[in-house]
Amino acid sequence: MHDHYTGRGLMATKSIKPGDVIVSIPSNLLITSQVVLRSELKDVLKIFPVKLTARLLLCAFVIYERQKGPSSFWAPYIGCLPDAFSTPSYFTSEELQHLPAALRQRATEQTRLLCDGFSKLTKFFEFGQECHFLSDFSFDLDDFKWAWSAVNTRTLYYKVEEAGSHHLVDPSERDVYVLAPFLDLLNHSSTAEVAGSFNSIKQCYEIQTTTPYNKFDQVFIHYGPHDNETLLLEYGFVEPTNPHSVVAITKEDVIKFSSEVMDAWVSETGSVLPKRFERIEAKGIWDISCSLNGPSWHLTVSLNILCMGQEQYGRGEWVGLLGGEEPSQECLARSRRAVQNILCNYLAKAVTSSQEVLSIKSDSYHHYMTVQLMQEKKFILEECLKQVQQFEPQEQT
């Protein structure tokens, strides 16, 4: 079936009940590092002086089998793979510039990893040709980008049998990459509840659903609790009304806006607040963000501690806030002002960014996803600000 939002997917041909197995793939149709090590590439891998990670082994395998064409056992599966993908590695330089800054930075790092992998596989295939194990074989960056994207967007992640024990696999990366023909046609939904595991008795990988479906419904699986920036980066799509999407707040802004509401403490907080935040981070505070549910607990408690009076802080009362104790009304009022200022500042920037992206005339899917990200960020900030403004305790005088 084909859906406007999800593209190609799988449709239920009958009603599906909670507990039903929706897909079962025999072990002999799962492509793992062990399959690659038993393939026609094994002779090169045995003498190639550099070990390849499981991910690169799968990339080399799909590139090699693709070039074999119809003679490959895997030709029907490889023929079903997309010719191109919608992940950032397929974006133009101009399209990358329009992505949110944090995502653009992650995409740059992903590109670095891709280029590093290309360099390693180039040496591998050149070595194979020099040793006369591979003949009439051509390989370029486009081939690798396609293979890397296919593996990165379509693999299952579970510990492969005997993984890590084989001396030809680079152990620097976990051997958990598995390509499963047909199963990768199932699209993602945050509301889908599934459990996947290898059935050692039946020797197959199974996915069981706890979400019921009617006949002709599209059937979904769950890739994980990913926000839309991660979904775009790793899989090349965004999900409407994604419950896992958040707006990250920088450490620098948390300190800056806390400093601005400290009144008499402003001159002192230049050195005091960064030191406070270091102690907060040491306690495991990391989720500095806001979502449709409001500011994260980590953001709230960080602001409460940063906005605490020096006398209270000196007595160690900040530790109690980490344990769930309530801050003083004075501290709470300052904290609320700080979070409102943060949200207003981020919202103003989000509105500007959204307007800039919307002004671009483009009908590409890359542009569509960027617009969705910008609009989502703006919506989250608006809703979060409304929630914060519903409760405004007064600062004591």
UniProtKB/TrEMBL annotation:
InterPro entries linked: SET_dom, SET_dom_sf, SETD3_SETD6_MTase, SETD4_SET
Highest taxon in the source lineage: Eukaryota
Gene Ontology molecular functions: protein-lysine N-methyltransferase activity
Alphabetized SUPFAM superfamilies for the sequence: SET domain (SSF82199)
Pfam family, one: SET
Segments forming a coiled coil: none
Residues annotated as domain SET: 1-224
Protein name: Putative SET domain-containing protein 4-like isoform X2
Annotated source species: Stichopus japonicus
Lineage: Eukaryota, Metazoa, Echinodermata, Eleutherozoa, Echinozoa
